[in-house]
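If your schedule permits, I should be very grateful for your opinion on a structural question. Kindly check, if you would, that the fold set down in the tokens agrees with what the sequence suggests. Thank you for your consideration; the sequence and its tokens are set out here:
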Amino acid sequence: MRMVVQYIHLHVWSYTTWLGYSDASDEDLNRICKKLAEKGVTLDQRGELLAERSLCVSAIMGTQDYRSFRKYMISQHTKNLRDILPLVLNPTTNRLDAGRDLAVVVAKAFDLSAQLFTCGWTFIISMPEAGAKFARPSMRARNSEVEPLDLQMRGTRIRFAVTPFVTLRDDSGLAIVTRNIDRSSVLIEQTTLRFTIPPSPQFFPFPNTMCSPVWSNNIHMQHVTTQTDSTTPHRDPYTLAKCGGGKRRQADLGLGIPAPRHTVVAWHSRGD
């Protein structure tokens, strides 16, 4: 899926897919789009360039040869995708059905490209890079049920982006107006965190006890242990915790035994 989406993003939803109709239209589109990519373009100039680009594509769509041009471009993009996808295609898939379905996808993408370049707005389409930090406003995790804000606050990194992040930019007014159209669908990394907590009655009801792994609120508790000296009398963990771990304090209480070690807990978010 990522390969198809990325190809459409780079080649179909690009002004280059409208090149080849005529020398005059190619010259206009190259000039307009190169000017739009330059730095220092004012808001008024950008609005005029977008209107001119929209007029150029609309002129192509209004000619009698547009249907043949559209059919040719769809066949070219479909052929390119059919040359790429066999590397990852399931061997049991029917190639004829896959090719026909692929042509339908490309046709819809080409028609959407026509709408993108005739509406007079700018659509910023980008794929997040692998290893980037998860951002709630622009991403949604496919393999986690954790709240997006929690993922962002933890600094969770993404492993793979499946679909792009789409932003609408309107340059027709007195100021630039942006709006998020669609968030990027990503797979996040499932990391294991380790931290140390002191013993408490909630986790350690008895000394020398190992708790079984338990799922609770998507948190997996692993390897929860507490140790005391087997040669000394047992005391409940709460009393030992009150000692503060100091030998002098233990002697004052008349316990005469070492406090239990702090317990290392490993946990990770439970993904689908």
